[in-house]
Amino acid sequence: MKTEKEFVKGNEALALGALKAGMNAYFAYPITPSSEVPETLAREFKSPEYPEFKIFLQAASELEAINMVIGAASTGAKVMTATSGPGFSLKQEGISYGAAMEIPFLVVDVNRAGPGLGNLGPEQSDYFQATKGGGHGGYRNIVLAPNSVQEMAAFPGLGFSLAFKHRCPVVILADAFLGQLKEDIVFPKITQEKFETPWAATGARGGERHVIASLNLDFADQSSHAEHLMSKYEEVDMMEQRSEGYLTSDAEVVLVAYGVVSRLCRRAVNELRAKGVRAGLFRPVTLSPFPTKELKALVDRGIKKFIVVELNMGQMVFDVRLAVEGRGSVDLIHKLGGLLPASSDIVRRVEMVSR
Amino acid sequence: MQGKTAGEYEIKLGRLPTLTGKPTHYCAGCEHGVLTRLIANAIEELDVREKTVLVDSVGCSVFAHDYINVDAVQAAHGRAPAVMTGIKRVRPDLLVFAVQGDGDAVSIGLLELVYAANRGEPITVFLVNNAIYGMTGGQMAPTTPTGMVTTTTPRGRDLKDTGPPLDATKLLAGLEGPSYVKRVLLPIVPIGSSELYSARGSLEGAKSVLNAFKVQQMGGFSFVEFVSTCSINWKMSILDSKKYASEVLTKIFPPGLYKDKMGIEKK
Questions:
Q1: Which residues contact B54 (CB under 8 A, 6 or more apart)?
Q2: FRET partner for A18 with CA separation of 20 to 30 A, picked from A61, A191, B21, B37?
Q3: Chain A stretch 176-205, residues whose beta carbon is closer than 8 A to a beta carbon of chain B
Q4: How far, rounded to the nearest angstrom, does the alpha carbon of residue A151 sit from its chain's CA centroid?
Q5: Residues of B near A (CB-CB distance < 8 A)?
Q6: Number of Cβ within a 10 Å radius of residue A47
Q7: How far does the CA of residue B18 sit from the closest CA of chain A (Å)?
Q8: Do the chains contact at A201 and B85, CB–CB below 8 Å?
């Protein structure tokens, strides 16, 4: 029945994907270019098609919204909120508490150009904020980077799954381009996972109570809690790295890009191949944990030239350099302010490097 | 007290199952400990210990869950009403409440408080207003009386500089959303010039806590402000601080029933 293609906007696909994954609650605050997410959900709210979708509420601020997420997620519900750059800054408070209190929830950042208000075009300049913690204190989020409307639809399900498995906030880092892009997609058949939540604060059933707190005044207590978080992040690093390679097996030069840029790079790789340049593409799907293992494997295979293409001043390039460990060159092609590089620009730069 | 006898709002003595029994960290003379017991009392009266979630706020009440033996979620500074909203929306069957201080609720968390109240969210906020930031060591709060010396107003709070004290009870009572808004003077009050003190505030407090929970169970937003003391940070003796609360603070924050949409106090 629902196997036919649908022509859907990225933000809308993300909202519908979350519903198909059994999302229970969404807390909204409007910000361009992410507002189609709450608009779609407001439209679908109370639709008999999504009986699990019980709560849609527009908050008075980004801070109020993320703290509503904290409350709802504390009961073990599947909860999400979406925003863009300036709002993502405000979400950091809640994400830090969510990390500390090990509450699973999804935050979507449809990355626009910045800093400050910037503009409404695509950038990837929230990479550091999403992948390196972002709020106060030391923690790591799991960060997923879709590169198509199809993945915008699929990643909320994956995100919930990872969030509940590891009990941590998960960020879907999209960009203004993907949010606004319309493509033909087939909604994935998602089995709505039911997660065990014995930790949830839903009343001291049978006398045993649940306390979800982040304050540990005793240094030894805080230390052991932080060590526990650290070992969890190490486990996530071992288990959850995801990436895609394209024509890397015989490549001499490999482009590294995520999100919408990986699509441009794929096209550039095709153009380069047509010119006889042995180019390939490495696309991180999880930005955190960063797919170091697979990238290292390329270095081990003798690839010595990497070019990172990203819509910021150079952020992921540091993670690529860490993975390459000085065993090859890592160059950067960047674009700022909402502009995308033309594939011809990328082709020209690769030709220069591979010469 | 509208003719109610003390017996109708009995405060049980001794160890309550809804209290953990852990000695509190509250300073001598602080009303937080009194309120803790009044809350435990009401939870037992309603028999909802296993259906209650307490949301800790930031301030002296941040460890409320150490003393009140129910499920708990700790909120960021000022965000308790937002966290409570999230819990209550998903689980309307639960009794959800927070104990907030005046810095937490009236300063950094005013937006969260006002909007939860305006939505008529069926949750309960108990505001302990001791007119100062207690836990951080006695800085000016939005509720600090004009002229009061604090660590950030060493020459006394200047109305021209920081405005007058902000009255959260009046503010909330002016909104459509809330069902029950009340202010109670919680400390003991000197009777005349004798050495005798009245603990009427505790009885009024017990009644108000119970009513606030009942209003929530009936689907309304309930808010009770407890005018309290902070003798340590006011740099007063405990008894002088009780006197100050009853003589000075009640002029700025007059106790009374400000809103009772459901007529719970008449029932």
A1: B64, B65, B68, B70, B71, B72, B73, B97, B98, B99
A2: A61
A3: 201-205
A4: 11
A5: 49-53, 55-56, 62-63, 65, 69-76, 79, 82-91, 94, 111-112, 115
A6: 10
A7: 10
A8: no
CA nearest A217 in B: which residue?
B63
pLDDT of residue A205: 83
**Cβ contact B90–A77 (<8 Å):** yes
The CA-CA-CA angle for residues A249, A254, A257, to 5°, reads 120
What's the gap in Å between the CA of B47 and the closest CA on chain A?
12
CB-based contact A86:A120 (threshold 8 Å) = no
pTM across the whole model: 0.96
The length of chain A is 355
Answer whether A71 sits within 8 Å of B55, measured CB to CB.
yes
What's the gap in Å between the CA of B60 and the closest CA on chain A?
13
For B225, phi and psi rounded to 5 degrees? -95, 130
Per-residue pLDDT tens digits for A253-306:
999 999 999 999 999 999 999 999 999 999 999 999 999 999 999 999 999 999
Q: Write out the two tokens for A333.
A: 């092609």
Q: Tell me the C-alpha distance between B67 and B44, whole Å.
A: 14
A191-242 pLDDT, tens digit per residue, is 788 899 999 999 998 878 999 999 999 999 999 999 999 999 999 999 999 9
Who among B55, B56, B90 is closest to A54 (CB)?
B90
Contact B84 A71 (CB under 8 A): yes
Q: Which residue has the tokens 């109610």?
A: B4
Partners of residue A202 in chain B, C-beta under 8 Å = 53, 71, 91, 94
Geometric angle at alpha carbon B129, from B124 and B131, rounded to 5°: 155
Q: Of A25, A206, A214, which is closest to B90 when you measure between CB atoms? A: A25
